[in-house]
Fold these 2 entries.
Entry 1:
Amino acid sequence: MTKKTILITGAGGQIGSVLTKTLRDTYGPNSVIATDIRSTELGDGPFELLDVLNGNRLHELVNRYRVTEIYHLAAILSARGEQNPKIAWDINMDSLFNVLDAAKERKLKVFFPSSIAAFGPNTPKVNTPQETITQPTTVYGISKAAGENWCQYYFLKYGLDVRSVRFPGIIGYQSLPGGGTTDYAVDIYHKAILGEDFSCFLQADTRLPMLYMDDAIQGVLQLMDTTSDKLSVRTSYNLAGVSFTPAEISAEIQKHHPDFKIHYAPDFRQAIADSWPQSIDDQQARHDWNWQPQFDLARMTTDMLSHLAEMLQIEKLKNLVAQI
Ligand code: VAH
C-alpha cells in the first residue's frame, strides 16, 4: 500500500497551521510536508518554501517527496481580497489550477476549502440548501464558487479525487485569522482575556454561520477518509456549526467575564457579511460522511477562554523568566 504523504499549501495560515499539527499527530511528522510562501515555525516535520503560483516548484516538491495528497489551504480571504480584487483572483485561481494539474498528473487526492462566501445576496439566507443560487459579490466568494466548479470538472473529466467543504467562519485559539470578515469572532475572545473592551466591525445583529476549529479539522479528516463511492457532492459540501451575532457571542463571554464590553463600529466588512447566509443546511454532509459538529456557542466560548487564559499565563511566565 502506498505510504500516505500529504503536502499542505498555506500551512502557516489559520486553518493550515492546525491542520498541519493534527495530520502530523495522526500520520507521523514526516508524512506531512508543510509549505508556505514565508518561513513558519510548525514543529517537527519537513517545511518547504512554496509560492503556490510557482507550478514548477510545486511539481518538484510533489516528485521529491512522492506526495500522495495535497491540501490546498493557501488563499486570499474576503476582506483582504476586496483591497486588491485582481491579485486575489489570480492567486486564488492560478494556485488552484497548479494544484489540480499536479494532482491530475499523479492521480493524487486533493482537499479544496470552499466557503459560505460562495453564496450571495440572492441565496436563501436561512438554512441555505446544498444546491442553491451561488452569485457571490466578493472576489473571494467568486473565486471559491469558480473553484468548486473546477474541482467538479476535474473529477468528471479526469477522475481526479478532489473533495471540498464550504467552511463557515472558523474560530480557534491555536492560530490567528487574517483578512477575513468573520475574524471578529476570534479577536473578541483575545480582547476579553486581556480585559480590554472590543470594537466590533459588524453590527450587533449580524448573524453569521461559524464553526469551531476542532470541528472543522475533524470534518476535513473525516471527509478525506471517506471512501469515494460515498460522496455525492463534488463541488463542495455545506458545513454548519453554530450561527450567532456579535451581541450573542459577547453575552456568552460576559457569563465568564462580566465586565467585558463591546462597542460597534461597522466598516466595509458589513456589506460583505450582509451578502452571506445566516445559517446553513448541512444534511448532505451528515448523510454522506457522518459529519457531526460537537461545539455550540457555550462550549466554544468555554474552550476558547480556557485555552487563551492558559496561553496568556505561559506568555507571562516566559516574560518573567526572561527577566531573571
Ligand atoms: C472570511 N474566514 O471571513 C473567511 C471565511 C466564511 C468566511 O471564508 O473571509
Entry 2:
Amino acid sequence: MTSTASLLEPRARPRVMGVVNVTPDSFSDGGRFTSPEAAIAHGRRLLADGADLIDIGGESTRPGATRPLVAEELARVVPVIEALAAEGAVVSVDTMRAEVARAAIDVGARIVNDVSGGLADPEVLDVVAAADVVYVAMHWRAHSDRMTDFASYDGPGGVVAAVRDELGARLDAVRAAGVDERRVVLDPGLGFAKRGEHNWALLASLDALDVLGRPLLVGASRKSFLGTLLAGPDGAPRPVDEREAANTAVTTLCARAGVWGLRVHDVRSCRDALAVVEALSREPDREEDR
Ligand code: PMM
C-alpha cells in the first residue's frame, strides 16, 4: 500500500483526484451517483481513466445548498469508500465532519479533504491527528447557504493576500491540534465565497501561496466561473458539462505552476492535458518524438 509520506512526495505531474459526489444536488454531477452501486461503478471508471486518487463526498457544497444529516452523509459515503479502498484505490473523503472523517478512515480512506479547513468542525483536526492520513485544508469562510455574503476581499493585497493569510491561520490551527504539517495539503478553494474575479486572481497567483510551504490542490472543474467565462451571446452561462476544454486549460496552467493535485470530474481529459505538459517538459529534440 502507498504510504502516507509517498502520497506527498514530489512527482513529475500533479496527482489527478477524480470526483465522486454521492449527492442528490451537487451542481456538477448531482443526482447521477446517488446509489452506492452507481457511485462505486463511477469510481472504478475514473480509476480506469487514470485517476490517482478518488474523492468521495456526501454533502453538496453548491452555493445555497443546505446540509444533510450526519446519518445521511455517512450512509452515502461509507459503503463507497469501503468498496473502492478494498480494491486498492487511494480514497479521499470530502467531508467537514469529524464523525464522517473517522468512519471513512475506519473503512480505508487515506485522505481527509475538508473544504472548511477545520473551521466547520474543529474536531476533524483531532481525528486527523490520531490517524495516518493526508489532510487537505481548503480556504473557506462560511457554509454554502451563506457563503456569497462573505465574498469580499477589500484588504491590502486583495483576495490573494487574504487567502494566503487565512490558509496560514488554518495551518497554525492544524499544527496546534497535533497534526504533522508534512501531511497537509492546502487548497485555495475556488468558488467558495469567491466571485469570478477572485477565482481568476487566485489562479493567476498560485505562487503567492508558496510561502506557506505546503503542496497545493486546485479544483476548478465545472465551476461556475468557467461557465460565466464561456457564456453565450445571450449571457447564459455555458452548461456544466460543456466546460471541459476550459478546465483543460486550467489543468495545463496548474501543472506548469507545479501543483500537487487537481480535483476533476473528467479524469481522461485531465490526464491527456498532463501528458502534453509532460511531453513538453522532457528533453526536447528527441528523434522518436518528431
Ligand atoms: N470543490 C468542491 C467540493 N470539494 N474540495 C477541494 N479540496 N477543493 C475544491 O475546489 C472542492 C472540493 C465543489 O465542487 P463539486 O460540487 O464539483 O464537487
